[in-house]
């Protein structure tokens, strides 16, 4: 419930747990705390009297979101008209500008994943193709959109299935799949997005 997630309650729980478990007096020994940017999370730092640091995983998540174009960094510009009224508009401040190709890549690969999730027969047909060519049984991950790390897993699984899906394309008579997969494998841009996103996450994991 909301009370149990209140800043004061959470700060109290941290104080109660850290002392017996880690012999750390949170109020005396801790100088900073990492969390996401939600106001409730920041409130915990204020209750403890420590500096607020952005959660490392939250920062990585934002980096990948900006890189993929899932999220843009906007600035609101205000300007005064001749008659004294103030108008506003938003400008993208993300380095490199907007990148619609990232969302297009996610949409295209999700359509492939949704195709196989929609029917047991379609999954079985692909599995038979994999068995015939000795491919791994790994399926295409089909995550939600809450965490961008799930999108990276989808990219990885799509690349791992590239050979099997290409062979399935040649053997199936399903026009719907043929169109969806042709949109995927014929797009050099799409696979570059997948590779660069995966490499970015690998590099960030070593920072």
Description:
The relative contact order is 0.10. The protein has helices at residues 7-22, 26-29, 39-48, 56-68, 100-117, 120-133, 148-160, 162-171, 175-185, 188-205; strands spanning 32-35, 51-54, 74-80, 86-92. Helix 5 crosses helix 10 and helix 8 (162-171) runs antiparallel to helix 9. Strand 1, helix 3 and strand 2 (51-54) form a beta-alpha-beta unit. The model has no long low-confidence stretch (mean pLDDT 84). The two termini are 36 Å apart. The protein is mainly alpha-helical. The strands form 2 sheets. Strands 1-2 form a two-stranded parallel sheet.
Gap from first CA to last CA: 36 Å
Q: Can you give the mean pLDDT?
A: 84
Strand order of the largest sheet: 1-2
How would you characterize the largest beta sheet? 2 strands, parallel
SSE string, helices as H and strands as E: HHEHEHEEHHHHHH
Number of strands: 4
- Globally, the shape reads flat
| Low-pLDDT windows of residues | none
- The helicity comes to 55-70%
Which class best fits the helix and strand makeup?
A: mainly alpha
Q: Give Rg in angstroms.
A: 24 Å
Output the number of helix runs: 10
Strand content: 5-15%
């Amino acid at each position: 419930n909301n009370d149990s997630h209140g800043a004061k309650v959470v700060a109290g729980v941290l104080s109660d747990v850290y002392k017996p478990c880690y012999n750390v007096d949170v109020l005396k020994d801790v100088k900073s705390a990492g969390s996401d940017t939600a106001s409730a999370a920041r409130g915990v730092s204020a209750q403890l009297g420590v500096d607020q640091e952005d959660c490392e995983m939250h920062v990585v998540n934002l980096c990948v979101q900006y890189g993929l174009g899932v999220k843009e960094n906007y600035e609101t510009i205000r300007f005064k008209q001749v008659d004294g009224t103030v108008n506003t508009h938003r400008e993208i401040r993300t380095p490199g500008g907007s990148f619609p190709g990232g969302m297009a890549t996610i949409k295209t690969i999700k359509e492939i994943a949704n195709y196989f999730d929609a029917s047991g027969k379609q999954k079985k047909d692909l599995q038979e193709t994999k068995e015939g060519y000795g491919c791994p049984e790994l399926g295409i991950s089909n995550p939600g959109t809450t965490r961008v790390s799930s999108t990276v897993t989808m990219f990885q699984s799509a690349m791992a299935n590239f050979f099997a899906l290409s062979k399935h394309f040649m053997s199936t008579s399903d026009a719907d799949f043929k169109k969806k997969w042709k949109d995927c494998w014929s797009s050099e841009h799409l696979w570059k997005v997948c590779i660069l996103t995966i490499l970015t996450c690998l590099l960030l994991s070593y920072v």
